[in-house]
Amino acid sequence: MKGKIIKITVLVAMILIFVSALMYEVKHMPIHIKGNTGYKPVVMADGVKLSDDIFIAIDYDVCGYGPILECMPGKLIFYTNGDVILQFEGKNIYKENVKDFDKVMEQIDIEKLMTTDPESAIDALDGASWGYYFYDEEGEVVCRNVGYCPQNDAFREPCRILFRSINEDYFDSALENARRGYGRRKGIPYYKNRW
């Protein structure tokens, strides 16, 4: 009898967890606004408004295979004023400003990107997951769209647009230095793969 009660309790807990996760996903789905191109704040289904300051964030220099430190990504955060900040392990490690960032924002349909299927390559064995992050007015991530080895050009093109707007060499160098410093602090040897 005691074992049966435990099984029922576990089953009920699992159902409650599933329902709450499903409700969270539904609550954070964006409302579709026809004709929304470029940067126009989108109101989320639960009344949350996207940030006027943070345009978008994207995983940076992800790697699915190689030395552990080389597989630790950074995150690029693009602000509507043109500032771009590279974070590693939650700390800001590099910043630059993109001139005429308005022109970059005009090329990216945020609402569409929030729901574009990345078309993950589920048969790939050595790839990495990466994607986009969308923030609310409080600076919290309220929506993310991430895929494993995304294959969809409609998903990948905004990344290309964003990367063309920055000086990747500086960001790469800053991330590599941060990885080396992290390795020194943690006692992890660092070497960069030269494929």
TrEMBL record:
<protein>
    <submittedName>
        <fullName>Uncharacterized protein</fullName>
    </submittedName>
</protein>
<keyword id="KW-0614">Plasmid</keyword>
